[in-house]
Each structure stands twice: as structure tokens, then as C-alpha cells.
Amino acid sequence: MKGTNGSHFQAAELDDVVAKAKAASDGYAAEVLRSDLLSVGVYTLQADALDDQTPHDEDEVYYTVRGRSMFFVDGGEHRVQPGTLLFVPAKAEHRFHDIEEELILVVFWAPPEGTGAREGGL
Predict the structure, then answer these.
(1) Are the C-beta atoms of residues 64 and 84 closer than 8 Å to each other?
(2) Best label site of 4, 24, 97, 107, fewest CB within 10 Å?
């Protein structure tokens, strides 16, 4: 089925993607789903892991499927638990820390991961 922006319908099973992310050296399965305007990945972090990510050129939304931790963003702290949604603007310093239970995070990127901020906004 073709979408209105030239993208096609896509689907993924979370358990399969989590297994792929866990098998990756960085715990991340990139571009599980992707269109011209958005991409989706899955990020996993084990309890007590170090999240050494650096700021990105795209906005991100994290949806916490499983796990508990703290989240640092732009000098502030936020508690993370199953069901937590986090919006991180492009270029904001952020990381998960004090990970008590393995984190399973669905990450939405706009524009798509790796494409950087578009001139003039979206």
C-alpha cells in the first residue's frame, strides 16, 4: 500500500526488533521503519549500562516499553519507567543513566535519523 508522501506501508514485530537491537554492539536497531519524514529505531540498554550517546541533528521521541532509569536532558533530570514518553529537541545533550532495569526504548526520529535538521524547519 502506497502512502501519500511516496512511502509504502511498513510493519515490524517488537520482539524481533528487540532481539536485533540486543545483538548489535551498540544495542540499537536503526531504521526499523522509515519514510521521507520519519524513522523509527529500537534502543536497548542493560541495567547499569553506560549510555554514551551524543546530541543528534534530529528531534527524537523515546517511548519506554520496559525498564527504569533516570534521563538527563539539557541540565535537567527525569524519571523513566514503562510508558514514559520523552521528547528531545535536535542538538540537546541527553542520556539515560542510573539504569535500574533493562531499558527497551522505541525511538522516533524527525526528520529521519542521519538526515540532519532541514533548512527552514519541517
Answers:
(1) yes
(2) 4
Q: 16 and 79 in contact (C-beta within 8 Å)?
A: no
Strand partners, 41: 107
pTM of the model: 0.88
Rounded CA separation 18/26 (Å): 12
Helix, strand, coil shares of the chain, percent, nearest 5, are 10, 45, 45
Q: Are 53 and 92 in contact (CB under 8 A)?
A: no
d(CA 51, CA 95): 6
